[in-house]
Design a protein that fits this description.
Structural class: alpha/beta
Number of helices: 10
Keywords: Membrane, Transmembrane, Transmembrane helix
Number of strands: 7
Shape: elongated
Distance between the termini: 94 Å
InterPro entries: DUF604 (IPR006740)
Oligomer: single chain
Pfam family, one: DUF604
Radius of gyration: 28 Å
Bound molecules: 2-acetamido-2-deoxy-beta-D-glucopyranose
Strand order of the largest sheet: 3-2-1-4-6-5-7
Largest sheet: 7 strands, mixed
Length: 291
């Protein structure tokens, strides 16, 4: 009996040392293999993308054709696409705001209306942006019991404009049906930034309490907000999920900000954008300027 248990103990001790030893061997050889893979099997074609872009002989690399296809020309108006959100009812008297700066066949983008234009808006003015009727998202709104269906439609518009037009686009500029953009200025400002990075530009409200009530990190829509291409793409891809996540938010700008933050991108205020509200001269008009 005693003999038996001693033998047991001996065996278990032996097992313990064996296992510990094995573990050490495995760990050590793992580290060795890892180091060997770094130093011995270094593939000259497989360095980091940063090295690749910086290195002078990248033309020999297999992805050089991708790099050479990157358009390094300075940003001009053709790289901007505008998404303007309005309603059929208001367009009758707001269209002059947009026509004051819109350049037919030069500026790219669309006006999104809630319903198809009535007869007295047809034929559609050649000086207005082409229109689209917003996608019917009633089903999504009902399913999520969204508290503000109109706001959901506006946020969804970001995806709709991206889907309509993204070839050669660097910046997606979203505005209201009464936003006024100074095109040369906005191009000058955007040309200073790398459109391949993730940017969410906008303006805080001129009314400090609005910033307090909503967020200081939010672009207030009337002044327009601007998304770089990769961010617009990511947001478009996430759109349905975004609207499902925040059916309780009542403001389009707040939903937009929240979903952009979920993508890990923070707000960059652009001082040239302005929202002017409640001045007697511009009752309910929101003006956006970039300088
Ligand atoms: C804008 O830049 C593109 C290149 O990305 C170029 O082809 C086009 O001619 C430019 N347009 C103007 C008006 O300069
Ligand atoms: C939108 O879709 C819903 C069903 O999902 C339908 O009942 C409604 O009539 C549609 N609205 C328009 C304007 O087509």
């Amino acid at each position: 009996m005693i003999q038996f248990s001693l033998r047991d103990k001996f065996v278990s001790l032996f097992d313990k040392y064996l296992v510990a030893g094995l573990c050490k061997v495995v760990l050590f050889s793992g580290v060795l293999l890892y180091l060997a893979s770094i130093f011995l099997f270094k593939d000259p074609n497989c360095s980091s993308s940063y090295d690749l872009l910086e290195s002078s002989n990248y033309h020999n690399s297999p992805i050089s054709h991708l790099i050479s296809s990157i358009d390094t020309n300075p940003t001009n108006l053709s790289h901007l696409v505008f998404g303007l959100l309005g309603s059929e009812k208001a367009w009758h008297y707001r269209k002059n705001y947009i026509e004051s700066w819109w350049r037919p066949k030069v500026t790219r983008g669309y006006l999104f209306l809630d319903v198809a234009p009535s007869k007295n808006l047809l034929p559609w003015s050649k000086n207005s942006p082409p229109y689209r009727v917003s996608t019917n998202i009633t089903k999504l709104v009902q399913e999520t019991q969204h508290v503000a269906p109109i706001m959901a439609r506006m946020v969804h518009g970001i995806m709709e404009v991206f889907q309509e037009e993204h070839e050669g686009v660097r910046w997606v500029v979203m505005g209201d049906d009464d936003s006024v953009f100074f095109l040369e200025n906005i191009v000058d400002v955007l040309a200073k930034y790398d459109h391949n990075k993730y940017y969410y530009f906008g303006a805080q409200s001129e009314y400090i309490l609005s910033n307090f009530w909503f967020s200081f990190n939010q672009g207030f829509g009337g002044a327009g907000f601007i998304l770089s291409y990769p961010l617009a793409k990511a947001l478009a891809e996430d759109m349905e999920s975004c609207l499902r996540r925040y059916p309780f938010l009542k403001s389009a700008d707040l939903i937009t900000m929240t979903c952009i933050m979920d993508l890990g991108v923070s707000f960059s205020p652009l001082k040239g954008l302005h929202q002017v509200r409640s001045l007697r001269l511009f009752k309910n008009v929101v003006v956006s300027i970039s300088s």
